[in-house]
TrEMBL record, chains A, B:
Gene3D superfamilies: Winged helix-like DNA-binding domain superfamily/Winged helix DNA-binding domain. It comes from Chryseolinea serpens. GO terms for molecular function: DNA binding. InterPro entries: WH-like_DNA-bd_sf, WH_DNA-bd_dom, WH_DNA-bd_sf. PANTHER family: BSL7504 PROTEIN. This is Winged helix DNA-binding domain-containing protein. Keywords: DNA-binding. It comes from the Bacteria. Residues 16-95 form the Winged helix DNA-binding domain.
Length: 99, 99
């Protein structure tokens, strides 16, 4: 039996990571505070999940200043896009197998 | 916008927990060692996820002796069955929203 669970991406299991990726996949760059607001989570929580996704090279971080304020933006990478798509396919397969 | 991420069950996010539930939902009781073999994970790993699911009252544990050997069996509860179904529905909605 083919096992769709094996295709699930450990780095994308957490709900917050799925949400981050779903925002980044449809936006060309997204800012830390905006992301925090969309996800409605704390700085620390968001930062730790961002770090994990950065470690996987699923997103890139760019820091700049906008009107003298620090501005941190995240962009999904091609690797991230592929991994997210694969993970969604695996989730779909898991759901289908159960229903 | 309705947010399907909010319906994801934190206690069922992990791949191993999804797999445990998918086995229990289709079997009337499943033994520890058999589960370990199906999932191909270590004792400790399985035990910790089982404990988490037991804490949520998603499964019950029964211990007995079979031919003088200790035998530990797990059964999904109605609460677990409902939660698993709800989580799968949420996953389905997440996938649909992305595609």
């Amino acid at each position: 039996m083919k096992n769709p669970f094996e295709n699930l991406d450990k780095a994308l299991e957490h709900r917050v990571r799925l949400q981050i990726m779903s925002v980044l996949v449809t936006h060309d760059g997204f800012e830390f505070n905006a992301l925090k607001e969309v996800l409605n989570i704390t700085d620390g929580n968001l930062a730790s999940h961002i770090k994990a996704l950065e470690r996987e090279k699923y997103l890139t971080v760019s820091k700049s200043f906008v009107e003298k304020k620090p501005n941190t933006k995240y962009k999904i990478t091609e690797r991230g896009r592929t991994a997210f798509k694969k993970h969604l396919d695996a989730l779909e397969a898991v759901v289908k197998q159960q229903k």
